[in-house]
Every structure is written in structure tokens, then in C-alpha cells.
Fold:
Amino acid sequence: MTRSPNHQGVSDNRGRGLSRKQFLGLGAGAVAGLLAGCRGGPQNNPALREQSGSGTGGTEYQGPKVELQFWNGLTGGDGPYMRRMIRQFNAEHDNIQVKMSAYPWEEYYQKLATSVQSGRAPDIGIIHLENLPTHAARRVVAPLDDVAEALNLKETDFVSTVWQAGIYKGQRYGIPLDVHPIAFFYNKTSMSRAGLDPENPPTTREDYEAALEEFKRAGIQAHWVFPGAWPHFPILVWQFGGDLYNEDATEARFNSPEAIEGLTWLVNLIKKGYSPKNVGAGADFVGFQNGKNPFWWHGPWNINAFNEVENLDWGVTELPVIGSQKAALAGSHNLVLPRQRTPDSNRIDAAKVFINWLSKNSLEWAKAGQVPARNSVRESTEFADLTAQAEFAKELDYVRFFPPVPGVQDVYGQTVEPAVNKVLLLKQDPKSALDEATERANKLLKENREKYGA
Structure:
């Protein structure tokens, strides 16, 4: 995909050596102590049930003028796109004005939890899907079943997997705005230099490894492996037919035969010279741009950043199938209603209108480097014209998310990442490292069930 001189780019810093922690937008620590003495789900709190609004519907708002506070972590290049959407919404609604406040994601999650505790929460927020169960369990966000019903939102309106993933303990807590899967970026100039067809990137393990060998002959280490193995490890586990956890995420399966096979394939990229050793944070991002790292698995937020790089000829497509089946790791921004100490039905009804409007008008958000969760937007000709985003959308039938269990992503970060890091630094073999990670993870999962009242 060549740089488009008329396309406004997004220099989202998440593209520069993004870790799993940044991708997931982890904020569990910010709420770990919030309401620590409380047990049971939010469904037992009457105040939360009252946050459904007046019951008069949510597609239109006829009440007095209100100013809604909308908080999020959109401080990068995606922020201007959201602000532009808000300006359009405000222009179309005389009696609703939305004011957006953006903070770095980890600061945002801390501020959100604190604001709920102090009774000064914003009216609307955004939460990464992987954080949703933790915030629901800690009663930071309110159930949205009544909101979805008022807006007549159904599973058939959205990507099915992301719609279902917004449910925790039988209640909905998020309305999905987007899906951001991991896909396969390739540098066309480097492919041509290695004698490869830049218009036909490899799709199978055999072709992928053959291409890496051709690059190696040309003096190029084509697939740089970051020591933390994000996002490779979960993708490879799924592609080889395994899973990270059992069905209810009470037991880790990081040391399954499929996981060991996937990690072994990854470490062999280093051992065979297809990747340098000890790749530094952000080096893979820079390496892709200068042609030294021409095969890169990463997210759609890089689209606009790459469009702004002079003379960078690149493409993106679905991940190659290294194992036995297609699979891609994905995340999602979900719109939420933070819990209010004294719910105001007018503000809640107005918030419904804003949520519905953002969802229906998410084509502009797609331009920020996202795949809209709403089917009607993705099926439009205007979205098809966003050719890079449309490539990411091809993966939606087989994207995977981390399980909707409070704290499960923290367990992954505390166990898998250090274990895989040792393996990719060639300090430990895959099986022993993953055995240790699994044993520790199962202890942490048990602690989490006690902590979150699961």
C-alpha cells in the first residue's frame, strides 16, 4: 500500500514497540482496591439497575439540555478523529453537548475508578474489552442490558464474537465500537529486492518459511521477534489448535503441546537467523519502515502512521496460517456507562443517544485505523474504500479475545511474558518455561476467584 499524500495520518504511539500490556490497555491494578470489601456482582446493587434511564427509549432525546462528560484514553493520533465525530454530534443535537477528556490509558483507568468511588464519574467512557470484566466485577461500570434494549441493538447488528464478549455474569457491560485484530504487514520494496512477488505475500507455513529463506539469502532477517512474544504467542497457540485457558478460564493451558509447538516455531525464527537476537522495544516498528524487518504482525492503528512515511511501499493482509487453522488475536474499544452515585435519567437517556450515534457513524472512526464493530458500517461501500482496514476486517470470522474473566490478562502478563522472554533470549527451553508459567498462573487464577468473588 503506497503512501497517500491526501490521507491524514495517525501517529499513534501504540505502533512503536507496542507490548501486550499496552494493547490490552491494562487497568486492573487501578481498580484492584476499589470496593475491595464488596462481594457479589453489580446486579445486586440497586443503584446500578437505576442507570437504565427514564425508559422512554434512547434513539432520540427530548429532555432539557445537558452537557455529557466523555472520558477515554485516546491521546494518540486517533484522538482527532474522535473529536471530529463529537463536533459533528454536537452540531446535530441542540439539547446534548458532549465534552471529551482524554488521558493516557493507564492514567485514565485509574482516574475512572477513582471518579466512581468519589461520586464524580463521567457520563460515558471507553474500556478495552479485556478490561471490561474487571471493571464490571469492581462495580466501576453499570450493566447495559436496558440500554441495548432501548436502542434495539442485537447480536446480528455486530461482529458476533465481540458482541458476546461484552457479557459478564449474564449481563452486558459494553457496546462495542470497533475490533482491532492483528494482521500481516509486508514491505513490498524489500520483497522485490529478495526476488519475491510483492503482490502475493505468503499465506501458508511452507510459503512463509520459504520466503524467510529467500530473504536470508538476500541478507535480510525478515521477521523480527520481540522477546515478549506479543502478539505471536497467543496467535500461534490458537493456530496450532490449542487454547490459553480451559473453558471457564479457571486453569491455564500455557504448556499444552500446541503452545509448546507454537513457541518452538517462534524461537526457531531466531535460531535459524530469520530474526536478530534481543530485538529492542520499538525496533521492529522502525525496522519495518526501513526495510530491515519486512514481515511484521501488528494492528490496524499503524495504517495511518505508515501512510505518512515517505516512499514506504507496504501492504497488509490476513495472518499466514502457521498451524492447522486460522486465528488472530484481537481487541476492542467498548462504550460504557460508569457507575453514578446519583443516576440522572436525563443524562443517561442522552448518553444512550450518543452511544447509538457513535456506533452508527463509526466510519469516521474506521479512518483512525480501526474496524467498525457494527455490520452496517463495515458493509458500506465507503468502508470498502478503506482498503487496509478492509483487509483487517477479513479476519473477523476467526478473531479471538482473551476470556471475559476478571484479572485474567494480568495473570497472562505476570506468567507467560517473563517465561517466553527467557525462551526468546535463548536462556530456557519452551517446555520448562511454560511448565513454570502454568503452575504459577493456576495459583494466581485461584487467588483472582477469591479476590473478585467469582
